[in-house]
Amino acid sequence: MATPEMQDAMVRTMSSPEMQDQMVEMMKQPEMQNTMIEIMNDPEMQNTMIGVMKRPEMQDAMVEIMQTPEMKKLIKTVLNED
Predict the structure, then answer these.
(1) What's one Pfam family the UniProt record gives for this protein (predicted)?
(2) How far is residue 52 from each of residues 14, 56, 80, measured CA to CA in Å?
(3) Cα–Cα distance between 46 and 39 in angstroms, integer?
(4) Rounded to 5 degrees, what angle do the CA atoms 41, 31, 29 make?
(5) Which of 9, 22, 35, 64 is buried most deeply by CB count within 10 Å?
(6) What is the predicted pLDDT for the residue at 51?
(7) 57, 11 Cβ separation under 8 angstroms
(8) Nearest Cα to 67, choosing from 77, 78, 75?
(9) Cβ neighbours, 10 Å, residue 4
(10) What is the C-alpha separation between 54 and 35, in angstroms, rounded?
């Protein structure tokens, strides 16, 4: 099970603008997209992500990340992978 410490680390990481830029860059790579799809299919990772997303300070960061064209494209790709 994902620990609160792990969630704290993810929140800190994803809250920084530099990190958001890096994530967007990573998402542009096809092999990274496959990794993301695998991560998203892992129930424990899903729980961790849900925990992270529920934090108020994360919601703004996630909204910003999700609005980038690359992320929109990635999300569509991930959702169509079933």
Answers:
(1) GerD
(2) 10, 9, 24
(3) 8
(4) 115
(5) 64
(6) 84
(7) yes
(8) 75
(9) 8
(10) 23
Q: Which residue type is seen at 58?
A: M
Residue 82: per-residue pLDDT: 52
| 42-52: pLDDT as tens digits | 888 888 888 88
Q: Do residues 79 and 32 lie in contact, with contact meaning Cβ atoms separated by under 8 Å?
A: no
Distance in angstroms (rounded) separating the CA atoms of residues 33 and 27? 6
Question: Which residue type sits at 6?
Answer: M
What is d(CA 43, CA 4) in angstroms, rounded to the nearest whole number? 16
- Matching residue, tokens 């990340």: 65
Judged against a pLDDT cut of 60, whether residue 1 lies above it is answered with: no
What's the pLDDT at 43? 87
Q: Can you give the pTM of this predicted structure?
A: 0.46
Q: How does pLDDT run across 8-42, given as a tens digit for each residue? A: 877 787 778 888 788 778 878 888 888 878 887 88
